[in-house]
Amino acid sequence: MKIAEARVIVTCPDRNFVTLKIVTDEGVYGVGDATLNGRELAVAAYLTEHVVPQLTGRDPARIEDIWQYLYKGAYWRRGPVTMTAIAAVDTALWDIKGKVAGLPVYQLLGGRSRDGVTVYGHANADSIESVLSEIADYVKLGYRAVRVQTGIPGLESTYGVSKDRMFYEPADAAVPTENVWSTAHYLDHVPRVFARVREEFGPTLQLLHDVHHRLTPIEAARLGKSLEPYHLTWMEDPVPAELQEGFRLIRQHTTTPIAVGEVFSSIWDCQQLITEQLIDYIRTTVVHAGGITHLRRIFDLANLYHVRSGSHGATDLSPVCMAAALHLDLSIPNFGLQEYMRHTETTDAVFPHGYRFEGGYLHPGEEPGLGIDIDEDLAARYPYRAASLPVNRLQDGTMHSW
Ligand code: CS2
Ligand code: MG
């Protein structure tokens, strides 16, 4: 069997997605997600111009070799654009391997380690009272883990609070929207939110909170300490993670568990965080960290150090990434949680899939391969629309992390 063709499909069914479809000379094909929010066309060009011409004629069964070829062969290693492009190829090749074997990919990865993949949903609202009713809705739907974000009194906009109740889409304008941030207002408010949530929902509902890289280590340490009475499952992205040793300071001060990794693209971005046990959950996922092949390597390293997985699953990761993540989630020994932000009906229609939600779990399904497809005719009806993530400034106008 040989790779006959690879197509890059850009579509915008309510938001932009880039998908790579690899077709073999025997007609079997596989799909991989290549979406990098706000920088979609950079990955599409990387694939079209530099990767696709090198794939034709290769044996699709040689997943590891093709991964090494694209990683080492480019000379320029790592980086989100390169690693997202490699991820797309890798994911599509696993899909093909599963279809050829007649097995769902999780079986090729060692089989089930659990019955289903526990997911967390997003409860977000302007006020504490309205977030309580959002959480109640998730509990009714069967979720056992909920991420909680609210508006901050005194600030007009806050990360994680959506305009639409069910769907969250931060990439809302071609030229980035500007948000304003105050750490003082934030640190004062968040513990009040979780005090109310625990009072209302009791001790066993798993609660999570995303700081979105907005604090310094000592500020994050204070937040973690103030949240200890409400025993969160995790405090996410407390600080920007370029400086991995910054997490040591947070760790020394608080027992609130720490999760990080959605912007990481390789094992090298989290090596110190894992081996020094500075985090509890690693949140990298298939599309941005080199595909199933590389992500499994990250999770295996994490497993040695009591770090569990908590893969990113926002709506800007396509259903193709979600399907691939679920196969890995089901098979690894150190699974923690999987984020699950529902896609819109239009997105789901473009990406018909076998995975399903039931009682707080996602199940990848039993179809050979990843159990995911792209309806190319439908995709062609939704052309790309430029959309950027917002930027963030302090009240005095200084640029801050979004
Ligand atoms: C977020 C994301 O899901 C999360 O945890 O941090 O919504 C993130 O902002 C987007 O995926 C950025 O593309
Ligand atoms: Mg996040």
UniProtKB/TrEMBL annotation:
GO terms for molecular function, please?
magnesium ion binding; mannonate dehydratase activity
> TM spans, by residue?
none
- InterPro entries given for it? D-mannonate_dehydratase-like, DgoD-like, Enolase-like_C_sf, Enolase-like_N, Enolase_C-like, Mandel_Rmase/mucon_lact_enz_CS, Mandelate_racemase_C, Mandelate_racemase_N_dom
E.C. number? 4.2.1.8
A Pfam family this chain is assigned to = MR_MLE_C
What UniProt keywords apply to this chain's record, in alphabetical order? Lyase
- BP-aspect Gene Ontology terms: amino acid catabolic process; carbohydrate catabolic process
Q: Which NCBIfam families match?
A: ManoateDhtManD, PRK15072.1
Q: What is this protein called?
A: Mannonate dehydratase
Q: What is the lineage of its organism?
A: Bacteria, Bacillati, Actinomycetota, Actinomycetes, Micromonosporales
